[in-house]
Design a protein that fits this description.
Layout (H helix, E strand, L loop, with lengths): L8 E15 L12 E13 L13 H22 L3 E6 L8 E6 L6 H12 L5 E6 L7 H11 L2 H4 E8 L13 E9 L29
Parallel strand pairs: 4-5, 5-7
Antiparallel strand pairs: 1-2, 3-4, 6-7
Length: 218
């Protein structure tokens, strides 16, 4: 039997077709999934190096969310950029378990750009629950920067979009689990064209990019 030469552990066995066992697992939202009938693996032989390293994926944490969320994030970037070319990037947030919440960074040209971006994101990823649109001077991977944009560029009576009774994620325990329905939310946390643009400018330390801490270290 040929196996990878760098393998630490090799398990030889069979996945039984006619035998199952009820098992549960932790989902990517760090919640317990309901028990499912899973096929049984019967181990026949085990081979390993001296002091082998066993690497496993911890369900519900960063490795699990990376494997699940990375292809969806790529899909979101492709689809939203197709709908709105001035989209810079789309990020699935850690707080949203890399599945339910997205931040969309755009170079806004028209007041309607944000709604196009939000609609495209919800269409691309059915499980998406919240989409926040920010300007290109806001880092979409920085939660503090995104919250800053909400604090200074968002007004709930004008910039909040609520879409009830939409197909959502089966993983979200707050949703209608029987019908798989949820309420989705879009937030326009971008600078308004109807306000003085200077009022949104983020102050910078003069010549900050030319400063070097090395000059002050001995």
């Amino acid at each position: 039997m040929h196996v990878p030469s760098h393998a630490e552990i090799v398990m030889e066995g069979r996945i039984l077709k006619d035998k199952t066992h009820r098992e549960w697992m932790v989902e990517m939202l760090r919640t317990y999934d309901f028990k499912r009938m899973q096929p049984v693996f019967e181990l026949d032989a085990l081979y390993y190096r001296n002091d082998p390293i066993f690497h496993d994926i911890l369900s519900g944490y960063s490795e699990h969310r990376l494997l699940m969320g990375m292809p969806i994030e790529a899909k979101l970037n492709r689809n939203v950029k197709q709908a709105l070319p001035q989209t810079r990037q789309v990020v699935l947030t850690d707080g949203g378990c890399n599945w339910l919440h997205a931040v969309i960074q755009i170079a806004k040209k028209n007041q309607t750009d944000t709604k196009k971006a939000i609609s495209a994101a919800f269409a691309a990823h059915r499980s998406l629950k919240t989409a926040i649109v920010v300007d290109d001077d806001i880092d979409p991977r920085d939660p503090a920067a995104v919250e800053y944009a909400i604090a200074t560029r968002f007004q709930a009576d004008k910039d909040l979009i609520i879409i009830p009774k939409q197909r959502g994620s089966s993983l979200d325990p707050s949703s209608d689990q029987k019908n798989l329905l949820t309420t989705k939310m879009g937030m326009d946390a971008t600078k308004s064209f109807f306000k003085n643009k200077e009022g949104f400018e983020i102050a910078k330390i003069p010549k900050q990019d030319k400063m070097s801490i090395k000059k002050y270290l001995r």
